[in-house]
Amino acid sequence: MRKFTFPCLLRHRISILSGTGALTTTARLSSLPLTSTTVTELSQQPISSEILLESIKSSQWHFVEQLTNSLTPSLVSTTLLNLVKSPDLALDFVNRIDLRRFDFPTQCLAIAVVSKLSSPKPTLQLLKQVLSSTSSSSSGKNSTSVRDIFDEMVLARDQLETKSTILFDFLVRCYCQLKMVDEAIECFYMMKEKGFDPKIENCNCILSLLSRLNRTESSWVFYADMFRMKIKSNLYTYNIMINVLCKEGKLKKAKEVLGIMESFGVKPNIVTYNTLVQGYSLRGRVEGARMVIKEMKSKGFKPDLQTYNPILSWMCNEGRASEVLKEMKEIGLVPDSVSYNILIRGCSNNGDLETAFAYRDEMVKEGITPTFYTYNTLIHGLFMENKIEAAEILIKEIREKGIELDSVTYNILINGYCQHGDAKKAFALHDEMVTDGIQPTQFTYTSLIYVLCRRKKMKEADELFEKVVGKGMKPDLVMINALMDGHCATGNMDRAFLLLKEMDNMRFDPDDVTYNCLMRGLCGEGKFEEARELMGEMKRRGVKPDHISYNTLISGYSKKGDTKHAFMVRDEMLSLGFNPTLLTYNALLKGLSKNREGEIAEELLREMKNDGITPNESTYCSVIEAKSNLDQTAEKSDT
Length: 639
Prior knowledge:
Mito_RNA-Proc/Resp; TPR-like_helical_dom_sf; about 650 residues; Pentacotripeptide-repeat region of PRORP domain-containing protein; single chain; mainly alpha; PPR_rpt; mRNA binding
């Protein structure tokens, strides 16, 4: 067989354009394999849309890929328009040439052509690629506005000469999948502006995302616009809005919506009732949840695990899980992995690890494989109860089963060792985490910085903090507070206040923990007036002092022996509705002890008991010392 070179191919192209030999040329081109020499020769010559189209139709993808760098937006667009009736081939073509290399109009045209496929998945994938690249920088020069994207999609739609609005439906859905809800809403209003009727499915997509993002107020604004536009709600719409009301704690109104939807001829489904049950359960209103279950039964719906799991979760916190389990079993419901994880979490949080592990064993016996959540909950519970060896045995068990640790497990372990001051094991796990290809998170670094501060290794803590910032990871408030507390504890107040300035530069608002750290550091240096002034600044910045703030000042003044100011702070604390704690009384008693004010100390002890606060050893020691000092003073005056 003779080599099929470019001149030969060109002659055949001429015959095709002239209308002769079209069938034979097509047949020969599709049947003849392209050698590497042929491909090289072809890729070095100007390519027409006819040659490119023929190559696509004959599935000569190796040749198409070789041409990628030579393709122009105009050539790609012409080819795409010729593939409108073959969107599957258009998709294959687009996937071979890396669409991101081409200009925005070409990308939009490709998406428009591919949108003709029966499956929405390829279109949404292409849209995500394009939207991610065009909005890679919200403030950068290359960013593209929603208006630009929408207008370009309109032009692409016009090129296809179609009246379908499915392209814009996909655009809204894509924004929602990317959690870009404001952009989705903007696109929705542009559709209305152009006279395109938005589908209720798009509205539900936006409402659902607003609900998941807990933007309940925005949900109602959007829902009101839907009503004004006379977009008729369906069952899914009502379920979303019932969920929004439950999140807001407006359970009575949520029940009223159930009646409204039925009056409009929309029958509720089991999701409607389960949403209400969850709403009542999350607020601890179990009897209300049971009333909903009773109503759903009367309407012919059988409660399922999604009905009972929220009730089970709340009752676990109350230590009454057995009641719900009994009720579930009576109607034939067998707990699933979610149910068991709820039980295990509840027991672990209450410190009942024996029962937690019993549920794990029962779970396995029922043929349900424990999930990462199961193991992570148990490991966390063991660390909370200071059972480090048992946690290590469980980790060994997980590894022996061939289960690779995930980021949550690593973070639980690292935080657990950090809380117990074992920096060596914590950092070893960090290194293992990186080796396994799992990226450390803010939580990881906060735990590591905490343990370094706890061991007074402030130089290393600062270096790790700078490393985090240098990697482009924005530190959070908890991380900065941990580092600041370390510097305050070691007396480096200059560095602590420098961190406060850095927080302002990073646009972080300091919280009560931030100021409490700084006040404690100032009191430790005997700078009580500066600490008092800092409380004033705290109030001016809209941060409310808490009982820790006041106790810090009281403790500082008492150590100095300035009981007058200590009691003044206590009185201010009381006037704001803060009840004194054991720490408050012990701090005041230490000041009275230092000043040998035994009578006032005894009076304060009586007040403490009347407030229902049980004195501890430190309390009695301070009172005894105050009275002892008083007796010594009396003896000296007698002599």
